Each structure stands twice: as structure tokens, then as C-alpha cells.
Amino acid sequence: MTTIESTSQTTISSAPQFPTAGAGMGFNEASAAVVDYLKSVLPMGFWAVTRFDGERQLYLEVRDDSYGLGPGGSHLWDDSFCINMVAGKTPRIAPDAMAVPEYATAGVAKQIDIGAYVGIPITRADGELFGTLCGLDKAPQSDALLAQAPLLEILGMLLSTILDADLERTRQARLLERAEMAAESDQLTGLFNRRGWDRYMEIEEARFRRFGDPGAVIVVDLDGLKEVNDTQGHHAGDELIKLAASVIGDTIRDCDVAARLGGDEFGIIAGDALPADCDVLVSRIQKAFDDAGVSGSIGHAPYTVVAGFPAAFAAADQAMYAEKKRRRAQRLAAR
Q: Regarding the domain with residue range 9-168, which homologous superfamily does it belong to in the CATH classification?
């Protein structure tokens, strides 16, 4: 049983150094320092920095010796304790979590045993919720846990401040990198070429993991290009590819990146996109294709911090081929 007692001066002097924000410290580095510090000075079974992605609560940085949870895990936000904490309906520190009705009836409490709970919001500069600093233990704690509120609030503010600085550095770096990668563009379409695509995925992988950003990979393959080349010539085929690229470029959002991967295949990295957002984007591309007289098969798959972009790309490519097969069968049946 893990319990929190009043922190004595002796305990403070022997505790790990309080996390400090060094110049250029990244949010992931700060998160690791904070949960390491808390696991030492407030030894609850689980400490984590989490991300709210609009649907789920994702674990970014975890120190856990009670629940078997790790980075990349998640649960529905609607099932969480934090949804009520952030709304101000429940206390940020609950030494006996099951004495709080909203916590006792939360979905996550039906999945794991939670005796004590700590939740501190992590916000962006504009006040928008990013996630939480969260602590759990299977056993209820003494009321001494309540005395740690000032420490926990300071750590939450520290993470919020570093998050905002890191997000701004990331935004500026993306702008610079896109300008520098202009040379890695496909001559026919003006989109990134395969080399630019691979490089961009590699760069973004670390950032998506650092912030737990939601996203997806979309793969598009044109239907009937060989027939166009055979019957109308390669110039007509090139014009079809250029038209498809133009439609894709006009349809995707500013936060998305498109590339011509080779031949008549295109890839899109959809940033800040939940599965439902990606469904909408794919439908919009398909409609724009139909309006422009372009026939193409589209597959997509969500990005996860566990599997990363390579797995999402492979899943999207597989989904695209399944869609191409379905569309081909549909055309044959219509003849």
C-alpha cells in the first residue's frame, strides 16, 4: 500500500532536484522530469502526463508500477476522472477518490482500481486544454496529499509554459523546413516527391510522439491511368496526374502535406485529424475528384504513437488496394 505522508524538511533535502526549465527544454523532456520527480517525492502507483485529443486521453509520459500502463495507452475522455476535474465539478486532489460520486461512477473506475487521484490541467497559452498531469494509486491516501496542492499547481504551470514555448518553436521549425524542402518536390505536380515525403515523415514522427498529436495517413491511387496512356498517350496521362495533384492540393487543409509517391500514387499526412476528421477529408477529396472527372481509390489509417507513421502508411496503402479492388468489381458488375 502506497501512502503519502506530510513531507518533512529532511525528506525535501534528500529528494530529487525540483524540475527546472532549461533553455530550449522540450515538452517531452519536461514531462519526463516532472513525472520522475513526482514518483520520488509523492510515490503514488501511477504518474503521467496525458494528452486530450478530442476523443481520448492519451498517456504520453508514464511512470507506473501498479497498473501495467505505458506511453501510447489511452481511454475515452468521457470515461476519465479528468473530464469532471477540468470542468471544475470535482476536486483536483482526491485522497479517497471513491468518496467523490463522479469519480466512483466514471468509466475508468470500472476498468482499474483507483483509490486516490490527482489531476492538474495542462493548457496552451490561449487557455485551451492540452492534457493533464495525472496521478493514481490503488489505495486511498491520507489527507496529507491535499497539502501537496501548491507543488502540483506549480508543476502544472511549468509544463504549460514549456508546452507553449515548444509548440511555437515547432511551428517556426516547420515553416523553415517546408521552405528548405522545396527542392524535394515532384517536377510534374509541384507536390513533395518520394524523398521529400520520407524525410517529412521522419521529421514529423518525433514531433507527433512528443505532443501526442492526432493524425492520419491517406494514400490515393488513380484508376485507369494505364488505359489513358495506352489510348490517348503519355501526355494525356501526365495531364491526368497533374489534375489529380491540383485537386488534392486544393482540397487538403493548411496543416496537411501531400506528395506524389511515384507513378499515379499520392500520399497525404493529415495533421490534427481524428478518425472522424479524416473521414470528412477523404470524402471531400473523393467528391472533388468526381467533380473534376478524376477516378481514384483512397485508403487511410490513423497515426498512433505506438506504431508510428510507417505502420499507418502500410495500413493506409492496404486499405487503398482493398478499395481499388472493390471499385473494380463494382465497375465490372455494372457492365
A: GAF domain (3.30.450.40)
Residue pLDDT tens, the chain, 335 long? 444 443 333 343 455 676 766 657 899 999 999 999 999 999 899 999 999 999 999 999 999 999 999 999 999 999 999 999 999 999 999 999 999 999 999 999 999 999 999 999 999 999 999 999 999 999 999 999 999 999 999 999 999 999 999 999 988 888 887 777 777 889 999 999 999 999 889 888 888 888 999 999 999 999 988 888 888 988 998 999 999 999 999 999 988 999 999 999 999 999 889 999 999 999 999 999 999 999 999 999 999 888 899 999 999 999 999 999 998 888 788 77
Each domain of the chain, given as residue ranges in start order, spans 9-168, 184-334
Nearest Cα residue to 118 out of 68, 100, 32: 100
What's the pTM value of the predicted model, to 2 decimals? 0.81
Residue ranges with strand state E in 7-55: 46-52
* Cα–Cα distance measured from residue 305 to residue 293, given in angstroms and rounded to the nearest whole number: 37
Length in residues, the chain: 335
CATH architecture of the domain with residue range 184-334: 2-Layer Sandwich (3.30)
